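Hello,

Following up on my earlier ticket. Below are the two sequence lines again, exactly as submitted.
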Amino acid sequence: EVQLVQSGAEVKKPGESLKISCKATGYSFASYWIAWVRQMPGKGLEWMGVIFPGDSDTRYSPSFQGQVTISTDKSIRTAYLQWNSLKASDTAIYYCAKHANGDHVGNFDYWGQGTLVTVSS
Amino acid sequence: QSVLTQPPSVSGAPGQRVTISCTGASSNIGARFDVHWYQQLPGTAPKLLIYGTYHRPSGVPDRFSGSKSGTSASLAITGLQAEDEADYYCQTYDNRLSGSVFGGGTKVTVL
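Thanks for your patience. The regenerated structure is below:
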C-alpha cells in the first residue's frame, strides 16, 4: 500500500529555520517525482516545486524559488521541505504529493496527510 | 491569482447536476496537457477524483465525469449527494511556468 506520512505540526517564530518531512512507503521511491503543495488558511492549493528522488532533479515554482529548499534522502525514502528564515506568511498546511507516472507533468495519485506550520511571534 | 480559473462556488439540490469549469490558457490546457480533478473534504488532504481529463480512479462513483474543450475543462457531478459537499480543484501542467498549476478551487454546496 502506497503511503506518504508527513512530520507533525510545527509552531515557530519569525526568522527561525524549519525542515519538514514526507516518508514514502509501498512503491519504488526513486522512480516517481514528489511535489510540495501549500494551502494557506482558507485558501486554495499552490504548487511549490517538485523533486525526482532518483537523481535529485528539482524544479521550483517562480513564486517559491529562493524561498524554500526541496530535497530527498533516498536511503530513508524521505522528501523534505526546508526554510532558512520563516515569515508569518509561511503559516499554512504543506502537503507532499506523489506523481502517478514517471514524469512531473501528470496527476498526483497519493497525498500526505499535511503538516501544519504556524509562524507567530 | 491562480493560473487556472474556477468559480468560487456552485450549489445544487440533492439529485441535481452541477458543473465546475476550469479555464486555462494556450500554455496549459490549450497545449493539450491533461486536466485532473481533486476533491478536498473539510480538514483532509485532497483526493484524486478524475485523472487524464476523463478517467476515474477505482472507487470513484461514475456520478463524477470530466471533459475538456480548447482552453477549458469541466467537472460534472450528476445525482448530487450530501457527501459531495467539498472543495474541488483542477490541476494541469503549464509549459510556460514549467510546473504544475491548480485552479483556485470551487466549493460545492448541497442545498
